[in-house]
Amino acid sequence: MLKIGVLVSGGGTNLQAVINSINAGETDAEIVGVVSSRAGAYALERAKKNGIDAVFISRKQAGSSEEYERSLIKYFKEKNAELILLAGFMVILTPLFVNAFKGRIMNIHPSLIPAFCGEGFYGLKVHEAALARGVKLTGATVQLVNDEPDGGPIILQKAVEVRDNDTPETLQKRVMEEAEWKLYPEAVKLFAQNRLVLENGRVRIKEKL
Ligand code: GRF
Asked: What mean pLDDT is reported for the chain?
């Protein structure tokens, strides 16, 4: 059974989507621990309600990003996590953490990468930028994390229609409901089934046997 660790900072609806999919028996996996960079993050409650160990690790208290990442690595290694999910985690990770779980970290981003991604594109800002540019389609992307913010190999993408009367808030909600909450559990399932193959910096999805 695949052991998963999750990093969060906020509401944790993507964490919830993965929990639901595991509980529904769609993926043979277990979430072994959730770490939040914010003390009051509702994601911690969601984890606890499901009997998952959940802790707040303070970036400030750690002093440096190196010390912070060392504590994250220690926590997840002690839990024997084999896959790390970034689920609304508002801290940019350095090569120290990325290399500790090389090829085993996923992120979800609320746009069709390479549109509206990279530094500064987080939360509602992504949807504000999409509306300002007037795109007719946006969506979500799940990718493997490497040293470049939002630059890793793409695993799955799903398009979502932009409507004339959308606000950043309505668009964010539709992208979550129609894309994010489906894509993340699906990507985790593919990983658990060993169906993601990295070839020439791209992800190929193996057919199910
Ligand atoms: C999502 O939009 C996700 O794509 C982005 O941050 C948001 C997190 O939301 N990386 P939640 O905490 O999962 O509800």
From this structure: 97
Q: What is the DSSP letter of 166?
A: -
Backbone φ and ψ for 61, nearest 5 degrees, come out as -65, -30
Nearest-atom number in ligand 1 for the CA of 108 is: 4
- CA 80 to CA 76: how far, in whole Å? 6
* Angle CA 175–186–48, to nearest 5: 85
pLDDT band of residue 209 (cuts 50, 70, 90) is: confident
Active site residue 127: no
The dihedral formed by the CA atoms of 27, 149, 58 and 106, expressed in degrees to the nearest 10: 10
Which tokens belong to 173? 């909600």
Whole-angstrom CA distances from 21 to 30, 42, 149, 182 are 11, 19, 27, 9
Element (H, E) at 84: strand 83-87
State percent of the chain over pLDDT 90.
98
Q: For 134-175, how does the pLDDT look when each residue is reduced to its tens digit (9 = 90+)?
A: 999 999 999 999 999 999 999 999 999 999 999 999 999 999
Ligand 1: centre distance to CA 202 (Å): 24
| Cα three-residue angle 18-98-186, rounded to 5 degrees | 25
Q: Nearest C-alpha to atom 7 of ligand 1 is from which residue?
A: 88
88, 165, 154: which is closest to 115 by C-alpha? 154
Q: Does the beta carbon of 34 sit less than 6 angstroms from any atom of ligand 1? A: no
